[in-house]
Automatic annotation (TrEMBL):
Protein name: Type 4 fimbrial biogenesis protein PilX N-terminal domain-containing protein
Source organism, top-level taxon: Bacteria
Transmembrane segments: 49-69
Keywords: Membrane, Transmembrane, Transmembrane helix
Biased composition, class Polar residues, residue ranges: 1-19
Region (Disordered) residue spans: 1-42
Biased composition (Basic residues): 31-42
Length: 161
């Protein structure tokens, strides 16, 4: 056998052609074995790993940016729709108030108010239709239009009580 203070890599194999080897690996049998410290580490080929990682990060970032922008666009559209919806109602109320003021001046007034842009140059309009109702009442219908939204308000009033 081999002395214990001898270097592992310089030891002679424990078997020979006369004596069969038992419990030894293929490399130990051939005498070409090395210690673990001397074995070079094999690395897997990593060609393109950085590119793959960069593509993944860019895809993730793009997805987040697109989702955020889509959310903001939807909120803006909802806000714009709400604003125009409210403005159309306010214009319809303005039409009713205009009709009330004209009826206070002349209770027999039934001409209505043609399409009126208010404020001038804004593209927002209102119009009023006035008609006689049952039992001496007056029906007033006002339409306010802003953008794609139209709101209709209706009021029934009675003169003298």
């Amino acid at each position: 056998m081999v002395a214990s203070n001898q270097n592992w890599s310089t030891r002679t194999p424990r078997c020979s052609s006369e004596q069969p080897c038992r419990g030894m690996s293929r490399f130990e049998k051939s005498g070409r074995h090395r210690s673990r410290r001397q074995m070079p580490r094999r690395r897997l080929p990593r060609h393109g790993a950085a590119l793959l990682y960069a593509l993944f990060v860019m895809t993730l970032a793009s997805t987040l940016v697109i989702a955020t922008l889509d959310s903001h666009v939807m909120r803006y559209a909802a806000l714009r729709n709400t604003k125009e919806w409210d403005e159309a109602r306010y214009l319809a109320e303005a039409g009713l108030n205009d009709a009330f003021a004209r009826l206070e001046q002349n209770i027999d007034w039934r001409d209505g108010i043609p399409t009126t842009e208010f404020p001038v140059g804004s593209g927002a309009t209102y119009s009023v239709v006035v008609s006689d109702g049952a039992d001496g009442t007056v029906n007033i219908a006002s339409l306010g239009t802003v953008g794609n939204f139209t709101r209709r308000l209706q009021a029934t009033i009675k003169h003298g009580g």
